[in-house]
Amino acid sequence: HGTIQVGELAKEMGVKAADVIRKFMEMGTMVTINQSIDAETAAIVASEFGYEVEAATVEEEALLEYVPPSPEELKPRPPIVTVMGHVDHGKTTLLDAIRHTDVAAREAGGITQHIGAYKVRLPDGREITFIDTPGHEAFTSMRARGAQVTDLVILVVAADDGVMDQTREAIDHARAAGVPIVVAINKIDKPDANPERVKSELAELGLVPEDWGGETLMAEVSAKKRQGIEDLLELVLLQAEMLDLKAAPDRPARGRIIESRLDKGKGPVATVIVQEGTLREGDPFVAGMTFGRVRAMLNERGERLKEAPPATPVEVLGFEEVPQAGDDFIVMPDETAARRVAEYRQRKAREAEAAREARLSLERVFEKL
Ligand code: GTP
Ligand code: MG
C-alpha cells in the first residue's frame, strides 16, 4: 500500500527508529515514530541507508496524475480578466457597464463584498470572463498558493483622483504574477477629470501609453455614462490575442475554487472557474480536501447550465464540505476515487499538523528512543 510508518520502515531496514528520525531531521523534516510517510519519501530515506526500494506509486497520487494536453487538443479560449484598482475608482460600475446590469447600486455600502465572476458575450460572439475582487486579497492569496487564474488585469484609475496606493499595489501584483495590464482611465465625465495627468503618473511607474511611444494599452472611459466601453473591450481582446490563450475542452474538467460559502438552502456551494476540459452535471470531483458530485451548475444570474467549457465561472452545488478559495477542482473517474483522494489529502494534512505539534517535544522523544 501507499504509506508506511517511520517505525515500520526502521524495522524493515533493521536500523534504530531514532536513526531514521535523525535522518529525516537532516533532510529538514520532523517526523515521529508513528507517523505515516508516503512511499516516495520512504524510498528516498531508505536509499540514505543503502537500501534501494522501488517507490510504489501511491494510488491516490496516481489518480491525480496529470497528462498535459497535446497541441491537437488545444482550442482557443476566452481570456480571464481581473479588474483591479483603488477603492471607489469604479471597478464594479465598469463591470456593470460591461454587463449592462446594476450590481454596484445594490451592494451594501457600495463596497464589493465578494468575488463576482461572469462571462460576457460580445455582440460579435467573442467572450471575456471577468472577475471582480474586493481589494486585492483574493488575487494575492491565490497567487501565494500558486493558483493563478488571471490572464490579464484591467487597472481602473479614476481620472479625477489619479494613481493612488492601491493602484500601485495592483501594478505590483500584476507584475509579480507576470500578467499584462490594460488601463481603464475612468470617470472622464467628471469636470475635474485629468486623463493626461493620470497617463504621466502611470508613465512614471513604467506603464507608458501607446500614443506616447510605450506599450501599455489604455482606454479613456466613463463607466457611469457607459462611454468608451467598446474601445476598452477591444483593447482587452487585442491584448488577449497576443497571449494566444488555449485550453483543451474535450477532457475531464480541471479548475479552481475562487469563492465558497455555506448556503442555508443549497448547502456548501463554490464558484469554480473551469480552466481546462468541460464540466458537466453529474461529474464527480475532488476539490482540495473535500469532494462531491456536480448536482447543479449556475451562472451569476442563477441560470442553470448543463456544461461549462474552459474559462467559464460557475457556481457548483454538490460539495460534501465547503472548499477553500484557491483549492484545485479536479473531475475524477468516479465518486469512490474522488472520496479516496479527498481522504488521502485530509490524512496528509493531519499528519503534517501532527508533525508540527510534535516538533517541540521531539528532542525529548529522541532521548527516550
Ligand atoms: P470598491 O469595490 O469599494 O473598491 O469600489 P469600486 O472601485 O468598485 O467603485 P464603484 O464602482 O463602487 O464606484 C465608486 C463610486 O464612483 C460610485 O459612486 C460610482 O457611481 C462612481 N463612479 C464610478 N464610475 C464613474 C464614472 O465613470 N463617472 C462618475 N462620475 N462616477 C463614477
Ligand atoms: Mg466594487
UniProtKB/TrEMBL annotation:
> Where in the cell?
Cytoplasm
| Location of the Tr-type G domain | 76-246
Q: What does this protein do?
A: One of the essential components for the initiation of protein synthesis. Protects formylmethionyl-tRNA from spontaneous hydrolysis and promotes its binding to the 30S ribosomal subunits. Also involved in the hydrolysis of GTP during the formation of the 70S ribosomal complex.
Which source organism? Thermosulfurimonas marina
Organism taxonomic ancestry: Bacteria, Pseudomonadati, Thermodesulfobacteriota, Thermodesulfobacteria, Thermodesulfobacteriales
Which amino acids does the record list as binding GTP?
85-92, 132-136, 186-189
Gene for this protein? infB
Q: Which family does it belong to?
A: Belongs to the TRAFAC class translation factor GTPase superfamily. Classic translation factor GTPase family. IF-2 subfamily.
Q: Which residues of the full protein are shown?
A: 276 to 644 of 852
UniProt protein name: Translation initiation factor IF-2
